[in-house]
Amino acid sequence: MALPIRILTAVPICDGHDSAINTINLEFIRHGIEVVYLGFHRYVSDIVRAAIQEDVAAIGISSYNGGHIDFFADVVSQLKKKGANDIAVFGGGGGTITHDDARQMKHKGVDEIFFAGTSLTEMAEYVKKHYGKKKKRRMKSKPDLVLARKLTELEEAAGKKAKHRTPNSEHRTSKVIGFTGPGGAGKTTLIDELVLRFLQRDRKTRIAVLSHDPSVIGEGALLGDRATMINSQDDRVFMRSMATRGQAGGLSPATESCLALLAHSGFDYVIIETVGTGQEALPFRNKLVDQTVLVMNPDYGARLQLQKIVMLDVADIVVVNKTDLERAKAALSEIQQRLTQNKRKQEIVATVAKRHRDPGVDELFELITKENT
Amino acid sequence: MSKLGAVVEAVEKHGSFVLEQVKRARSDEKFAQAVTERWNKVKAEIPIAKAPTGLPLPRLALPEIDEPGEIARYLFGDGLPGEFPYLNGAYREMYLEPLREIETGSYGNRKSPNGDSHNGAGRVSRAKIPERPARPPLQEEPTRLFSGLMLAEDTNKRFHFLSAHQRSKRLSTAFDGPTLYGIDSDADGVFGKIGEGGVAVDTVEDVVRLYDGFELGAPNFSASMTISGPAPIIMAMYIAAAKRRFGAKVVPNLRGTIQADIFKEVQAQNETIFPTEASLRFLCDMIEWTTANMPRWYPVSISGYHIGEAGSTPVQQAAYTLSNGFAYAEMLSARGVPIDQFAPRLSFFLDCGLDVEYIALARVSRKIWAIGMRDVFGANARGQMFKLHTQTSGRSLIAAEFKNNLTRTAAELMLAYMNATNSCHSNSADEPFTTPSEEWIRLAAHGQAILLEESGIFKHTMNMLSGSPGMKAVERAVEKAILDEFREIESLGGVLAAVENRYQRSQIQNAAHRYEQQIYDGTRPIVGLNRYRNGADEMPEIELVRTPRAKQNLQVERLKKFKKKNAEKSKGALDKLGAVVERGKNCFPALLEAVEVCSLGQITGRLQEIVGRFRPMV
User: Is A33 left (phi over 0), alpha (psi -120 to 50) or beta?
Assistant: First the structure.
């Protein structure tokens, strides 16, 4: 089966018009396209960095706030500067982009501009027709580019169930931390807040983040974690969004090999985030990670539910996030109680990840970094 | 229960109160007599004015009823214009032409013994039949056109162009993208956005230029500023600019509105720059300061417009807007700001599109607000009034055969004025393509003049189109649906909790998706797009308003000069501001000092270091 087309969509800086792109994203997914959505109010540099790291075939930009000629042209020229001119640029802006503007934009290297009245299907068909060709290998190029393309190759290999030599986890140069937990517990926000602390503590630290979103084999996916991340849009952070492409359990068929590669690529930390998981999930097998963090929501239901969450037995750190909720106090003591059954050293941390400078996140950061500093 | 739950109860209770009065008027002879006397007195006092054709018409139209129960239902349930629960209008005469000659009656002259000064003037006790309040003193044109383009001097020129022939100068300011996001024009990557879609403002000097030639403290001048994320900073710049031109004594006289609605930004428009809680704190700081020091300023315009434009249904728009308003009232009360200090300074902004709900959406909103503010928050009459600015729907305008947009806007204007909006913006037909050019904005402004001045629809008689059976049916359906939405939000823990759970956002997105789907499958007819298409999709020849590079460069140069000039002083001002914010004190006075020497981006940057940045919701 052909691998899904991957594209990145975004809305430019100083523009919050995300209504159109939200609708278009859904249509692309329906047509089997994997969409990495970067969100609104995004700088050119953030878009270009993300497109390279995600190794997408094209960038779709939805612009409604003017200044589109400069903005689109800037994206094209920065891609070129970074050696990624194989990534195409297309977009639209309802009536705000005139035919004359579009001519200028195309002259500056934009592939296509969709005007008001274009049907959603037409856009999706365009993407499928033009951006579905297989990518060429990029060897003599900048490190991010090469790494990104190698990750794509690993994903392709996993899709074909081909054997791919995976580097031995014994020789990792990065500490690998696995984050898992139910959907909506705040894993992405928590990781983004930790990234801020990594970046601030040491000006040389480099981080890789491997995040997962669910998808069915051969179909599209919305990879939307980047859209809510504000601190991870940084040159010292390499982030890759993966669709599970039909695999159950919270990770993708290519996770293991991709992780192994990242752990050898000079990052100080590699953070891996599973999709939202169920009670039976044990996503990190075979010493896949060095440390596991289970992120919980205080609203897990009755106390008895805790007995069924198997990750509670094996997680090194249990984070109870959203402890500003009323239910949090009871949840903390119930979870604490549940952990004492395990008779092994497990840490429990209460956080409010959405809060700036949250002391709970500070505490978690110390737990994660203490062996390495 | 948050106060929203209490509002639902209050509206239901008011409904049963009205029914009780109806029953009582039918069973209690003395009450029936009092009700009928009041009715006859009101009717007798209505002046008759002549239309230009000589046709005599009453200045106020009332339903033709004489049965005491029905009279009670009307007086208590709808209220006369300017009377609780304000269904027919927040004020008594709205757009009527000033009376030149009174043919009969004393309606326009008599002073009411029942002013709005005492708390709960609108609270109708079981026995007392309300008297009519005095009519407002100043007649202003309701037309208020939103504009902003290129640099401050260009927008200033547009302001003068638009207000040249108006007796009152009511300006409405649109800001460019970088300003809306609190970013300086010299920031990396925003150059092409300078002056696009609105005016570029970086410093207090830009604000001085922006309103040059207007007398900021004059009673016939008011400025509206459409900005929310960095609103407290821009508000401080406006005050500082006014002081530079007219001295400190001008501050209490400043009139106008700043949008500053954080909830709708997080729910729909996405122009917010600090985390929600921090944004709300800065907003309340500003409201607390301005309501104490600028009694004629509206420091927040609680806006459904952007919720509607982002794709919500009309009911969602009204429900989220009202509930956001009640949430602000709850927050300010919790802070200890006296209700009668802030409630009269809350104003509203709704969208008006072509869906049938718009026949009565603002009418019902006015009623729910009045009941909630009176019965749950204990606000006085002025605090119960839902003061409304309406804008015709931008989303309803389309690029294909764009001249049809004139008709769409005209129909929407009609609906807006049927809903007795206090002020109104009519969109220009060329807006699907560009910031309006002078040709089309002139037509948009004239649309309102034709409706209000040329036509006799709204100028001779109040209630000219109020209260038809169809309108009543829409009112009832809309009111029920709004209360259902309130219950849903309440069950999620109130407005703030629902916002954090993205409830309103997802509801709006779902509605937007459905709307697009309906356009594509043809169940939502759009003339020129999915009906009566003429086949030619060529864009029309229209004049585009774009900011030339030279102007963008000029803005950056000015900003750099300002920063260089104030390099030393800005450091101190930012440190002081930072310290106040860290200590949790009201930061508005420190902002007032900071804007004298700091740019918008410098202040935003420092505040974000302390409170963090907004994490987008998707």
Answer: beta
- Provide the ipTM: 0.88
Domain ranges of chain B: 148-258+567-618
Q: What's the CATH architecture for A164-372?
A: 3-Layer(aba) Sandwich (3.40)
- In tens, the pLDDT along A183-197 reads 889 999 999 999 999
For residues B312 and B268, the answer to whether their CB atoms sit within 8 Å is: yes
Q: Where are the domains of chain A?
A: 6-130, 164-372
Q: How many helices (DSSP H) and strands (DSSP E) are in chain B?
A: 23, 11
Q: Using 70 as the pLDDT threshold, list the residues of chain B that sit under it.
A: 1, 100-144, 535-540
Q: Which of A14, A40, A189, A362 to mutate to test the interface with B (most CBs of B within 10 A)?
A: A14
Mutate to test the interface with A, among B270, B393, B505, B533 (most CBs of A within 10 A): B270
Note the helical H segments in A131-278: 143-159, 187-201, 255-262
Per-residue pLDDT reduced to its tens digit, B570-586: 999 999 999 999 999 99
- With 0-12 / 13-18 / 19 or more C-beta atoms within 10 angstroms meaning exposed / middle / buried, residue B567 is exposed
Residue whose C-alpha is closest to residue A262's, from A202, A176, A195, A196: A176
Residue A282: pLDDT band (50, 70, 90) is confident
The C-alpha angle A175, A178, A182, rounded to 5 degrees, equals: 165
Distance from CA of A37 to the nearest CA of B (A): 9
Superfamily of domain A6-130: Cobalamin-binding domain (3.40.50.280)
| Residue from A16, A308, A315, A290 nearest A187 by CA | A315
- Cα B505 to Cα A159, A177, B495, distances in angstroms: 36, 32, 12
Chain B residues lying within 8 Å of A22, measured CB to CB: 509, 512-513, 618
Rounded Cα distance, B69 and B231, in Å: 49
State the first-to-last Cα distance of chain B, in angstroms, to the nearest integer. 28
